[in-house]
From TrEMBL, chain A:
Protein name, UniProt field: NADH-quinone oxidoreductase subunit N
Main location: membrane
The keyword Plastid appears for this protein: no
Annotated function: NDH-1 shuttles electrons from NADH, via FMN and iron-sulfur (Fe-S) centers, to quinones in the respiratory chain. The immediate electron acceptor for the enzyme in this species is believed to be a menaquinone. Couples the redox reaction to proton translocation (for every two electrons transferred, four hydrogen ions are translocated across the cytoplasmic membrane), and thus conserves the redox energy in a proton gradient.
The NADH:quinone oxidoreductase/Mrp antiporter transmembrane domain, residue ranges: 120-414
TrEMBL record, chain B:
Family to which this protein belongs: Belongs to the complex I subunit 4 family.
Name assigned to this protein: NADH-quinone oxidoreductase subunit M
Record flagged with keyword ATP-binding: no
NCBIfam families reported in the protein's UniProt record: NDH_I_M (TIGR01972)
Species of provenance: Chitinophaga eiseniae
GO MF, one example: NADH dehydrogenase activity
Record membrane topology: Multi-pass membrane protein
Record-annotated NADH:quinone oxidoreductase/Mrp antiporter transmembrane domain positions: 128-420
InterPro entries from the UniProt entry: NADH_Q_OxRdtase_chainM/4, NADH_UbQ_OxRdtase, ND/Mrp_TM
Length: 479, 483
């Protein structure tokens, strides 16, 4: 391993070392505050390690990994998201669990898994990253053992993730059997040489799509999402919604680009059907939910559908739109979960819509933040979500995907209904004498984090140019 | 720059009044009122200074916003924008004044929303960048949603949701059309821009133009509203607080009409001409159907709301008649409808404050108790039915005159609408103010504040009726699309 390899993989290596040290730290002296601070420092160092890596891009680490602008950008995004989730976690676990230290080790490990996915360009590293991520998530989801639903969610995720991994492996094997390659560019070259898509490879792609689709939580592989979101500890749910899905999406893009998936209409149609089904199922099922976590779960299914529309547009703008949308979606989702986190008391998560009735008149600050997050999810101006949706629609128009766009427009309106219903609940005037059951914790760190997220969200909504330029530069490398 | 000031003043005042609202209700109201009067002053000054000058665009302001996409912060003002802005600030100031006593809960947030929606409307009337237009178009919705949803009457949430979903659905289609136009333009000229002036003469195929035009038109027809898309209007108008109804009827509907004049016709002249008979049919249907429904209502605010559907039908007929007289009429109709319907909503609000019902069957004979309010209502009811001497007459007359060459049939049908207008207007007057009175207790008549509001509205509507020439002159230079 050369020095340049070492520098390029800096963020990954830093986190790996941190996970080992954290483990030792817990073994020597169990203290929540210390492990928490250590985890924050580890994330910060890992983020700093991104900077020297920039010098050497693009730098492949053959055969498994590649460090280019695209992977570094997403590394930064995932690390930032991880850090923010970490910041929101302390109070949540301080109030709830006796043994909270291992949470941080698992969180670091899960982030490592996501980072490996982001830099991988080979079936082996793909699977390695995926399993590190999944196995850490099993532990994370069931972390609050005392809760029934937490166990249920953990088991559910375990079963389905293992099953989907098996499909993924089988799919990979089929692709390998025909092409004789496990690295993405190699597969792409072999397929181009063959000049057609044999049935076995098609079946292989289909099976891989099951594995990928499961992680993304798209229809019809979405069944786990609402239950897991509901049962998992809130910061973990935020992690699944953002980091886990984002990393998988990045991998999907890279694979699709490397094999030039747009040349194969069959593949395109498979993803298109999934996209439309996700939009409809997600929005439709969210309409009648009474539980905020489940609403967020279904809404994230729908948002994956929107992202896939950008993905399917088959133009350069589409990839840019996807990256921008992902950034906006990360901020918004973490923000929305962050609100639920700060609103939850040690006894009970603030998860029913009723807990938020008249929130604006009791805690205007939290309600404003939540409103901004929901409006961003709905794609209303002045928020990053608006620019993101605009970008996606733009990509679709550019790629002449009128049918998909029409579906997107219909779904945006359906989606609006439940977002706006939540907003309306917060602004509803509470009846006199009405008492709410949940007394929010409102920790200071959480509030500051929410403040930063809100500023970021509105900042991106009002002045998106800087971020767009960054993304555009990055995507030029990829194509 | 002065155009940006208009927006910034409103936005700053919105934030400031919210902050001030926590401390003192009066301060918050004064901030809102002063900012609107200040803007009104600026607009009037511009108007006085420029009546003599020819040339269409009086002010332009342009800075890059997202150069990556060719989006710029591009504001411009011509006669049409100027008139619409004058109406916006005038009615906005009145909306603040009428809620002075009516509204006592969460005052700061109310004025924040009110000024914010006015800021969005101002943006819509000024912007010459299609992205920015969509941005402001959507920005109007949220505060309006809150105005209806928080301070409205019994079924406010239903009404607010309906309003929001309808306009959003229309807006999204417009977004698709805007982007379609953007890429068609780029494909033909290789310039990626949302600039209105550059997009104006985009060469495109007839089919493309037809689809894009439809995208714009649907959004504006929903907002206007034209007949199949009008169902959100009665609910929203009825449930909104008085200030909300005034802003909705007086201003928000005008953004739809403005959009047709500013975007649909100039951007797609050929496609618009193709669809003109259908659009005029919708307009006529709106006039007749809206008028008939208005006649059948028992809820005072709902009745007034349906008259809006009817009056906006005239706008649609005139806009698609493709000649200058009709356009002048449309602009007049936009202004006079804003004033007369706004005034009727204000009177309905004042009545509701006193007798706490909007049900026509529970009213009657109120003239005896409140002669001032009765006479004011009479004036605006007369305006609404198109009595000569009042502004609406000029507007409807010009529209009918202009649409005659375009289509005899539709003009005749539209004229029948005037008869229906007479019927529902007189019914309103009779049910509320005339007839037997079964109320024994005293009611206070219009107080000083309300008198100021009503009198300023009366002056405006009479001025437009007797001396419409300044308004007509102002819009004369607007380059209309004439067939």
């Amino acid at each position: 391993m050369s020095f340049v390899d070492f520098l390029s993989l800096g963020p990954l290596i830093t986190l790996c070392a941190a996970s080992v040290i954290a483990m030792l730290l817990v073994a020597i002296w169990r203290n929540h505050r210390i492990v928490y601070s250590f985890a924050i420092i580890a994330f910060l160092m890992s983020m700093t390690a991104v900077i020297p890596a920039i010098i050497y891009i693009p730098h492949p680490v053959p055969p498994l990994l590649v460090i280019d602008e695209f992977s570094l950008f997403n590394t930064g995004l995932i690390l930032t998201a991880g850090l923010i989730i970490l910041l929101l976690s302390f109070n949540y676990f301080e109030e709830r669990e006796e043994r909270k230290e291992e949470y941080y080790i698992l969180l670091i490990l899960a982030t490592i898994g996501a980072l490996v996915l982001v830099v991988s360009r080979h079936f082996m590293s793909l699977f390695l990253g995926l399993e590190i991520l999944s196995i850490s998530l099993y532990g994370l989801i069931a972390y609050l053992r005392a809760r029934e639903r937490s166990d249920e969610a953990g088991i559910k995720y375990l079963m389905l993730a293992a099953l989907s991994s098996a499909f993924l492996l089988f799919g990979m094997a089929l692709v390998y059997a025909f092409t004789g390659h496990m690295d993405f560019p190699g597969i792409g070259a072999a397929l181009r040489q063959a000049g057609y898509l044999p049935v076995s490879v098609m079946a292989g792609f289909g099976m891989m799509l099951i594995g990928v689709g499961f992680k993304l939580g798209v229809v019809p592989f979405h069944m786990w999402a609402p239950d897991v979101y509901e049962g998992a500890p809130l910061p973990v749910a935020a992690f699944i919604a953002t980091v886990s899905k984002g990393a998988m999406l990045v991998l999907l893009i890279r694979f699709y680009q490397d094999i030039q998936g747009n040349d194969y209409p069959m593949l395109w149609w498979m993803v298109a059907i999934i996209a439309v089904a996700s939009m409809f199922a997600g929005n439709w099922l969210a309409l009648t939910q009474q539980n905020i976590k489940r609403i967020l779960a279904y809404s994230s299914i729908a948002h994956m559908g929107y992202i896939l529309v950008a993905f399917l547009s088959g133009v350069q703008t589409g990839l840019e739109a996807l990256a921008f949308y992902l950034v906006a979606y990360f901020i918004t989702s973490i923000g929305a979960f962050g609100v639920v986190i700060v609103m939850s008391s040690s006894l009970q998560d603030a998860e029913t819509i009723a807990d938020y009735k008249g929130l604006f008149w009791r805690y205007p600050w939290v309600a404003m933040v939540f409103t901004v997050m929901l409006l961003s999810l709905a794609g209303i101006p002045l928020t990053a979500g608006f620019i993101g949706k605009f970008y996606v629609v733009m990509a679709g128009v550019n790629g002449h995907q009128w049918f998909l766009l029409f579906m997107l427009a219909i779904n945006s309106v359906i989606g609006l209904y439940y977002y706006i219903r939540l907003v309306a609940t917060m602004f509803a005037v509470p009846a006199p004498g009405q008492q709410t059951t949940v007394v929010p914790a409102l920790p200071i760190a959480g509030n500051i984090t929410l403040g930063i997220l809100t500023v970021l969200l509105i900042g991106l909504g009002v002045y998106p140019t800087a971020m767009m330029q960054l993304i555009q530069q990055m995507m030029r490398i990829l194509s | 720059m002065i155009l940006l000031v208009l927006l910034i003043v409103l936005f700053a005042a919105a934030l400031l009044s919210w902050v001030a609202g926590a401390k003192s209700h009066a301060a918050c109201r004064w901030i809102a009122l002063c900012s609107l009067l200040f803007n009104l002053g600026i607009v009037i000054r511009i108007w006085l200074a420029h009546t003599a000058i020819s040339g269409r665009w009086w002010y332009q302001y342009k800075v890059d916003w997202v150069p990556h996409f060719g989006i710029s912060l591009h504001l411009a003002m011509d006669g049409l924008s100027l008139l619409m802005l004058a109406l916006t600030f005038f009615l906005g100031a009145l909306a603040v004044l009428i809620s002075w006593k009516e509204l006592q809960t969460r005052v700061g947030f109310f004025h924040f929303n009110l000024l914010f929606v006015l800021c969005g409307i101002t943006g819509v009337f000024l912007t010459m960048d299609l992205f920015l237009f969509y941005f402001f178009w959507e920005m109007m919705l949220i505060p309006m949603y809150f105005l209806i949803g928080i301070w409205g009457h019994e079924h406010r949430e239903y009404a607010a949701n309906k309003f929001f979903l309808f306009t959003q659905a229309g807006g999204l289609l417009m977004l698709l059309a805007i982007l379609g136009l953007y890429f068609v333009h780029a494909a033909n000229t290789n310039v990626y821009t949302f600039n209105y002036f550059e997009l104006l003469n985009t060469p495109m195929e007839a089919t493309t133009a037809r689809w894009l035009m439809l995208g714009f038109l649907v959004a504006f027809l929903v907002k206007l509203p034209a007949v199949p898309f009008h169902t959100w209007l009665p609910d929203a108008h009825t449930e909104a607080p008085t200030a909300g109804s005034v802003v909705l009827a007086g201003l928000l509907l005008k953004t739809g009409a403005y959009g047709i004049l500013r975007f649909v016709l100039p951007l797609f002249p050929a496609a618009a001409a193709e669809i003109a008979p259908l659009a005029m049919l919708l307009g006529v249907a709106g006039i007749l159907y809206g008028g008939m429904l208005a006649f059948a209502q028992t809820d005072l605010k709902r009745l007034i709301a349906y008259t809006s559907v009817s009056h906006m039908g005239f706008v649609l007929v005139g806009a698609f008649a493709f000649n200058e007289i009709a356009y002048q009429g449309v602009v007049m109709q936009m202004i006079t409808h804003g004033i007369s319907t706004g005034a009727l909503f204000i009177i309905a609000g004042a009545l509701y404050e006193r007798i706490h019902t909007r049900n026509l069957w529970q009213m009657g004979g109120l003239w005896l108790r409140m002669p001032l309010m009765g006479s004011a209502a009479l004036i605006f009811v007369m305006a609404s039915l198109g009595l000569p001497g009042l502004g609406n007459f000029i507007a409807e007359f010009l529209i009918l005159l202009g649409s005659w060459p375009a289509s005899h049939l539709f003009t005749i049908l539209a004229t029948i609408g005037l008869v229906i207008a007479t019927a529902y207007s007189l019914r309103l007057m009779q049910k509320v103010f005339l007839g037997p009175c079964d109320r024994q207790y005293a009611m206070r008549d219009l107080n000083g504040r309300e008198l100021v509001i009503i009198i300023s509205l009366i002056i405006a509507i009479c001025w437009l009726g007797f001396h419409p020439q300044p308004v007509l002159n102002t819009t004369q230079n607007t380059a209309y699309v004439i067939r």
